[in-house]
Amino acid sequence: MRNWAALITWLVLAPVVAAETPLPAPKPQLVAAATVIPPPTVATGMPVPRWVTIKAGRVNVRRGPSLEDNLLWTYVRPGLPVEIIAEYDSWRRIRDVEGETGWVKSVMLDGRRRVMFTGRVNTAILREPDGEADAVALAAPGLIAELVGCEGEWCEVSTRGYDGFVTRDRLWGVRANDNGR
Fold it and tell me: Which structural domain, as residue segments, surrounds residue 104?
């Protein structure tokens, strides 16, 4: 019974106390212009996500799928592998090696598979898919190579006249169960 009395007292007095308590003046807030991002759709019928490359020497990345949306940055590296994570009409939402996302026109992308060497040290490109095989070249972090295909933990790559194998954990642009084709 005592709990009921406390509850009734609180219900009666709470609005009075709240009305007498002055509220602090609201702080002005800066609000970024809202960009409406449409829900992901598959405009092409191709799987999403999937890997592609930057085709042109200058590719603008926008906040949303429209030329009226804010320009975020411009890619200036043809062949750079990116991941398509959504499609809308003739626009593709992509993610790059740094995890940044934005929208680009589909005509600025190429379906050829390329990968980028990752890590902080050079990676040996091996003659055979075997950790004991001879190295045919050393690939610096950030080097882009054509992806020939993958089997198990090994991927075959080709870059600057060198062909060989590396483990997929040294590459960005290929998933764990991806055969690279």
Answer: 50-112
